[in-house]
Amino acid sequence: MRIDQATEHDAEAIARLIGEIEAYYGGPDSPADPAEIRERLFGRRPVATVLLARDGDRVLGMASFSLLWPAASADASLYLKELFVREPARRQGVATALMEHVRDAASAAGCARVEWTADRDNPTAAAFYTALGAQPHNGKTFYRLEQDL
Description:
Blueprint: E1 2-5, H1 11-24, H2 34-42, E2 49-55, E3 58-68, E4 76-85, H3 94-108, E5 111-116, H4 123-131
Parallel strand pairs: 4-5
Antiparallel strand pairs: 1-2, 2-3, 3-4
Helix pairs in contact: 1-2
């Protein structure tokens, strides 16, 4: 298995993964638009970085993250938006390897911490994150405003 940063050539694979992620959360399993993936990740104003775990040409999973500022004081933090491993590759160390690479990316970017959210009704994810040494942070409430595009 290898983990590397996605390139524009990975837009189709990422689009299929986005569809699988939507299905995992109860939505339709329909791929995202590869052109939109290219624009969002590799256009003039990239919004995130994606790491892909692969076994040969087969994509096993992904981690998607962005940098945030300010974190504590004037520090930066890395925000993990999505960690996803395809069903056949789960419980084989893929998520752990992706998280190690995420932490390396945070260190390389000078980030003081890595942050993320997890669904409260996903005990498997909670157990995985606890095994990594992460603890839930109960001092924040998550909010969302929908935007008309």
